[in-house]
Specification:
Largest sheet: none
Number of strands: 0
Protein name: Amphiphysin
CATH class: Mainly Alpha
Distance between the termini: 31 Å
Pfam family, one: BAR
GO molecular function: phospholipid binding
CATH superfamily: Arfaptin homology (AH) domain/BAR domain
CATH architecture: Up-down Bundle
CATH topology: Substrate Binding Domain Of Dnak, Chain:A, Domain 2
Keywords: Coiled coil, Cytoplasm, Membrane, SH3 domain
Number of helices: 4
Number of domains: 1
Order of helices and strands: HHHH
Helix content: over 70%
Shape: rod-shaped
Main location: cytoplasm
Length: 180
């Protein structure tokens, strides 16, 4: 939309003849319109996209930790299975049993630490999305409403200049054949 507005303004500047009413006004209105679009774009980027980028930055770390938790769950299951195998085999090798028990406890501790951390963090992250959505949409709609109020004033000024130009050249009005 911004580029379309810029193109329209440039076209208007190119075709507007110097002796027509409001030549300077049209130039100022065009610059005001372009400035409003640029300001809207910059504010939208600053208030919305930067917040979105910041919000999204937390996901790669969480994804890495969830993947690590999955790997540690496999390690824990493997250590548990190894311990069960040793217990059911009937061999009485205390050293192997103690080593397997230590590995099982270590694997369980590492897994539990990751699991508890994620169980604390993931629900709060899930709930935070609502606040993020609200603030983002409120910001966007507020910026849009302000922009449309301001651009409508500029469009009104252009309409008034065009009305006076039509009065100046009332004998040269363009009519479309077959139109009522």
């Amino acid at each position: 939309m911004q580029q379309a507005s810029i193109n329209l303004t440039q076209s208007l500047h190119e075709v507007y003849e110097p002796d027509w009413h409001g030549k300077d006004d049209v130039m100022v209105i065009g610059k005001d319109c372009d400035a409003l679009w640029e300001d809207f774009h910059n504010k939208l980027v600053d208030s919305t996209l930067l917040n979105l980028d910041e919000y999204l930055l937390q996901f790669p770390d969480l994804k890495t930790r969830v993947a690590k938790r999955s790997r540690k769950l496999i390690d824990y299951d493997s250590a548990r299975h190894h311990m069960e195998t040793l217990q059911t085999s009937g061999m009485k090798n205390d050293r192997k049993m103690m080593k397997a028990d230590d590995e099982l406890k270590k694997a369980q501790r590492v897994f539990d630490e990751l699991d508890v951390g994620l169980q604390d963090e993931l629900p709060s992250l899930w709930e935070s999305r609502v606040g993020f959505y609200i603030s983002t949409y409120k910001s966007v709609t507020s910026l849009e409403a302000k922009f449309h109020r301001e651009i409508s004033l500029v469009c009104r000024q252009l309409y008034e200049v065009m009305t006076k130009l039509a009065e100046q050249h009332s004998d040269k009005m363009f009519t479309i054949q077959g139109a009522p």
